[in-house]
Amino acid sequence: MRKNIVVGNWKMNLKRKESLELVEEVISMLKNNNVEVVFAPSYTYLYKVNKMCTDLSYVHTASQNISKNKNGAFTGEVSAEMIHSLGVKYIILGHSERREYFNETNTDLRTKVDLSLSNNLDVIFCCGESLKQRESGVHFDWIKSQIVESLFHLTEEEFSKIVIAYEPIWAIGTGVTASSSQAEEIHAYIRSVISDKYGENVSANCSILYGGSCKPNNARELFSKENIDGGLIGGASLDANSFVEIIKSFQ
Ligand code: PGA
User: Distance from the CA of 225 to the center of ligand 1, in angstroms?
Assistant: First the structure.
């Protein structure tokens, strides 16, 4: 079902004490929230953070990644079934940093999507273009190919477990945000791509989040757009006040 979701992607930031304090602070500031809030800490704190969230129906956790292998001799890797065994709800897949620094391809991501779904984990699937791609006008086709190649083998029922996050690479961590109309244009396009494959109903029920320098001062404008259902927040999710202000931008 389409819902408003705000995800804090902490990336490789925060030590144990800071992580747990941040979660405590955010939770204490949220009362009867009608937005789903998701924390994506590092693997090391995921179990503890998830435990801190279990009493609140609207607060969940996400893993920032999983291995593309099911299990076995893969030193240093973490599998989908391990994450599921912690009670975690979501896996973030296809973040541009994973694609760029760890060479994750659409085919790898397709495998990870399947492993996530077969372990009852919902997927937050990231897509987005570089500045060069936008300037040369190939961004629509690029985003479509990311979605088609990693997700469109799914059945309708499986696809209902997917949340899309549109994250223009040129806006991530740069302080440059896509304007609300630039973001809305892509979100509407993504919805039309989904509709062409799975029909209007599935497309209307898919939550599509925006990510890329989303901050308290621009979240309200972005979230007011018809096809923007929330945010994937990096830098601003590391501070309780700014993260909560973003969450409250729907109200
Ligand atoms: P940012 O990161 O909010 O720091 O730009 C967003 C993301 O990478 O998910």
Answer: 19
The parent domain of residue 29 ranges over 5-250
H or E stretch at 203: helix 200-204
Length of the chain: 251
pLDDT, residue 1, reads: 83
> Could you identify the atom of ligand 1 that is nearest to the CA of residue 236?
3
Does 208 score more than 80 pLDDT?
yes
3-state secondary structure of 23: helix
Task: Tell me which residue has its CA closest to atom 1 in ligand 1.
Answer: 234
CATH number for the domain harbouring residue 238? 3.20.20.70
Give kind and range of the element (H or E) at residue 114: helix 106-118
pTM of the predicted protein model:
0.97
> Residue 62: in which H helix or E strand, if any?
strand 59-63
> What is d(CA 196, CA 59) in angstroms, rounded to the nearest whole number?
32
139 is catalytic: no
Question: Count of domains in the chain?
Answer: 1
Q: What is the mean pLDDT of residues 20-38?
A: 92
User: Could you read off the pLDDT of 76-133 as tens digits, one per residue?
Assistant: 999 999 999 999 999 999 999 999 999 999 999 999 999 999 999 999 999 999 999 9
